[in-house]
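FORM 12-B: Structure-to-Sequence Request
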């Protein structure tokens, strides 16, 4: 009877999560969809991939849409036999973002049921975790892969704790394996990596407990073996994805560096430190977990417009010279954010009540949870500081495997956002239920932590201006006193409002606990009060960053690259800043569409109007020189930095010719100017002059100055390729593209002499095959980043096809791993039922 009653409460809790998720996302009821910046960029960059899939029913693992061509592994490609991804899709059945919110709530609810086995605390903890502000910020930005990964944090931890703490080996194996597989399938390795840094503390904690004989060593070894097997099988289910990405990442900006210069060392793996640590959390900024606007919140807070208007008025009234105006402009960044990061969409706010209860949890929670959660929380906070705590960052970058593959260390705070709600409910549960804790002890801890927290808030409120400053060093240097004083006052007001709210929320929570302790308040009522106040707190802060303005009509969400302006479009855009880009880009989109419709041959467009490396509008209509992607191929990124990001009037056009930039677009998005480029080299060309370079630095420097229509720059290491392969000039020779698909190109060539054919296709050493008259031949790298192949004299048919072997190998490993999981899970459940029947039979005999 009690079991059935518990199941009813669990079912009710799941319904509550669905209701909360829909209430937060009410525009979905009217058919509106989220307008997410990164998803808009994805739609542009993945257009060729999506079109190919729709037209052929097959998958292409290469696309020419961005950056001269790159694998699609990080662009939404699908893998045959990827069963675990289908499970992920089925779990995310609700409309976006309702699906994310529901799974964030439900996943933590499972974790809560494992650690405290009480639905009330699990429900409370689920709202603590599921309403963490950072999740709503990344949903608004379109970081769907990131939030998809985070939603499986809690259930994965639940599976591990089922094994280690609850000694439920079979169910623990099933839960851990399933959610490990789903975690990897969500495809955000950085988030998974950060979670496992924290789980390392759990492993150490269990090892120490076993050494101290607080738990049997046999249990620790069995548990560790089961979890290791679960993780291996979970990873194995994603073999295609992992193998493809592992092969790909070696050739990207996350892999080994090729050039030697001020910021790069040839052969060194990973990104340079400056790029890695650019988004480092300030040490004081960490208190944003507790007070959302300690550093102003986000760079674009709603109050920013009013503040900026007044700033402009003050400048007009008080500034009398251009020199002073120029000086002031040097200090400007964002008026509503003054932290250490270059900018931010919002704070990693955890909730005042959650942080307060987490502090209590570190005193009340069981030691088997307390110490590893404390250690993991401290480490992740210190790592989030990045460049603001270089001794630790240097150590991790230099000695901890794979750490230097990831940028933006501030995002590691997702671990704290998992662990604080966990330690909060663990402490709260023990506070209310553990009879071994005396009332005197509880009262003393509550007094110290509650009084200390409220006292800390009072100190910040009274002495905040002198302690926090409310201005950046840049602003203090360049702003005159009248402007600096105004900004400090306005920022202090923003901070003060949130600090007062935090004081009230903590006071209410502390009072509820105290009154319960004194038997003046029912425990359930206290939990409701804490839950409702925390819900109101987090909900109201989250609405600053993800609200009704983030939703647009379906037509704009699914087709953000509008080419025609209309009164309807203007009406829809009015008052919605998220749609302003759609209206402002109509002219440039129309220009791109016109080029693509008039010239249907294969070529690339160099578009300066929107920022070469910060847009995918071009890619939506035609192949682009630029694009928008965090994991670009290393060689292409080197060329971008050398020739595209810094313009040279002679060298840059020379490189654009190599990349077959047949059209160039200048000016602004309102009045774009199309300039045809008749000097573009085309899809392929023959060269008879070879220039050998001893180093990659020499290669990349040479391509800006040589006549690349006649000469190819070849690495000296490829000299042996030309043994018995002479190259001779023939002015009548030609090579033309006859068929184009993103993963297969065909050419027809004719020459009286042997030639080196250079293709305006990015060199990638894995998966591409070159066939001359259907016979596979080796190819080499030319001009630092292109493919080249020796072609004998005569008429020839040349075909390039992208058939990565890792896809086929990975498919069978994925299917084998999933089959093994099903087999072991079925056997485990059979074993549980068999033992249960035995127990029932024994009980009946007795």
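FORM 12-B RESPONSE
SEQUENCE OUT:
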């Amino acid at each position: 009877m009690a079991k059935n009653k518990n199941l009813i409460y669990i079912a009710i809790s799941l319904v509550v999560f669905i209701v909360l998720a829909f209430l937060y996302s009410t525009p979905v009821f009217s058919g509106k969809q989220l307008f997410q910046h990164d998803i808009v960029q994805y739609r542009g960059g993945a257009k060729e991939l999506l079109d190919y899939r729709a037209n052929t029913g097959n998958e292409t693992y290469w696309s020419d849409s961005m950056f001269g061509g790159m694998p699609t592994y990080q662009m939404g490609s699908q893998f045959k036999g990827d069963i675990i991804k289908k499970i992920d899709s089925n779990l995310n059945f609700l409309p976006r973002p309702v699906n994310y919110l529901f799974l964030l709530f439900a996943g933590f609810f499972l974790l809560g049921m494992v650690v405290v086995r009480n639905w009330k605390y699990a429900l409370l903890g689920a709202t603590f975790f599921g309403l963490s502000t950072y999740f709503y910020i990344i949903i608004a930005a379109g970081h769907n892969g990131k939030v998809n990964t985070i939603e499986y944090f809690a259930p994965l931890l639940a599976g591990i704790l089922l094994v280690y703490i609850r000694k439920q080996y079979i169910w623990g194996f099933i839960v851990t394996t399933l959610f490990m597989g789903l975690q990897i399938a969500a495809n955000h390795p950085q988030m998974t990596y950060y979670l496992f840094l924290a789980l390392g503390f759990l492993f150490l904690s269990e090892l120490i407990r076993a050494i101290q004989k607080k738990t049997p060593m046999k249990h620790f070894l069995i548990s560790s073996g089961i979890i290791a097997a679960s993780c291996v099988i979970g990873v194995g289910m994603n073999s295609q994805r992992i193998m493809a990405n592992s092969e790909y990442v070696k050739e990207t900006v996350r892999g080994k560096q090729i050039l030697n210069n001020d910021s790069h060392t040839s052969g060194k793996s990973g990104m340079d430190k400056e790029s890695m640590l650019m988004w480092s959390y300030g040490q004081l900024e960490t208190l944003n977990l507790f007070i959302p606007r300690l550093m102003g919140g986000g760079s674009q807070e709603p109050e920013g417009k009013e503040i900026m208007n007044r700033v402009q008025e003050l400048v007009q009234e008080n500034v009398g010279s251009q020199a002073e105006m120029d000086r002031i402009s040097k200090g400007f960044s964002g008026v509503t954010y003054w932290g250490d990061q270059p900018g931010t969409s919002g704070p990693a706010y955890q909730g005042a009540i959650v942080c307060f209860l987490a502090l209590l949890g570190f005193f009340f929670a069981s030691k088997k949870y307390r110490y590893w959660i404390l250690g993991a929380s401290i480490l992740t906070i210190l790592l989030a500081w990045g460049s603001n705590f270089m001794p630790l960052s240097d150590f991790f970058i230099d000695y901890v495997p794979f750490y230097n593959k990831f940028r933006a260390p501030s995002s590691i705070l997702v671990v704290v956002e998992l662990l604080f709600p966990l330690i909060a409910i663990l402490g709260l549960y023990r506070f209310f239920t553990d009879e071994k804790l005396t009332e005197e002890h509880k009262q003393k801890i509550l007094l110290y932590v509650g009084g200390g927290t409220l006292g800390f808030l009072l100190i910040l409120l009274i002495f905040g201006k002198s302690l926090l400053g409310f201005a950046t060093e840049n602003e203090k240097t360049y702003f005159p006193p009248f402007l600096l004083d105004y900004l400090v006052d306005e920022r202090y007001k923003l901070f003060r409002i949130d600090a007062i709210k935090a004081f009230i929320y903590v006071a209410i929570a502390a009072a509820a606990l105290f009154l319960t302790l004194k038997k003046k308040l029912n425990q359930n009522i206290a939990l409701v009060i804490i839950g409702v106040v925390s819900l109101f707190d987090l909900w109201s802060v989250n609405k600053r960053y993800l609200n009704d303005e983030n939703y647009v009509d379906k037509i704009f969400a699914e087709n953000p690259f509008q080419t025609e302006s209309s009164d309807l479009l203007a009406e829809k855009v009015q008052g919605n800043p998220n749609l302003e880009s759609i209206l402002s880009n109509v002219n440039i989109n129309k220009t791109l569409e016109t080029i693509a419709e008039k010239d249907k041959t294969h070529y690339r467009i160099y578009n300066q109007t929107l920022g070469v490396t910060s847009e995918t509008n071009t890619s939506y209509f035609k192949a682009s020189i630029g694009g928008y992607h965090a994991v670009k191929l290393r060689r292409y990124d080197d060329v971008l930095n050398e020739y595209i990001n810094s313009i040279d009037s002679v060298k840059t056009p020379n490189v654009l010719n190599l990349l077959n930039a047949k059209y160039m677009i200048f000016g602004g998005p309102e009045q774009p100017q199309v300039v045809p480029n008749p000097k573009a080299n085309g899809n392929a060309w023959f060269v008879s002059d070879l220039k050998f370079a001893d180093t990659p630095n020499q290669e990349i420097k040479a391509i800006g100055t040589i006549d690349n229509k006649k000469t190819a720059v070849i690495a000296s290491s490829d000299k042996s390729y030309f043994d018995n392969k002479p190259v001779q000039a023939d002015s009548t020779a030609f090579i033309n593209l006859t068929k184009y698909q993103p993963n297969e190109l065909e050419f027809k060539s004719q020459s009286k002499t042997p030639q080196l054919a250079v293709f305006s296709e990015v060199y990638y050493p894995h998966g591409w095959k070159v066939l001359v008259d259907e016979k596979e031949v080796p190819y080499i790298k030319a001009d630092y980043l292109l493919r080249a192949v020796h072609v004998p004299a005569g008429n020839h048919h040349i075909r390039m096809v992208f058939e990565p072997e890792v896809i086929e190998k990975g498919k069978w490993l994925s299917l084998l791993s999933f089959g093994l999981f099903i087999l072991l899970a079925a056997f485990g459940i059979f074993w549980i039922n068999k033992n249960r029947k035995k127990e029932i039979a024994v009980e009946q005999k007795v």
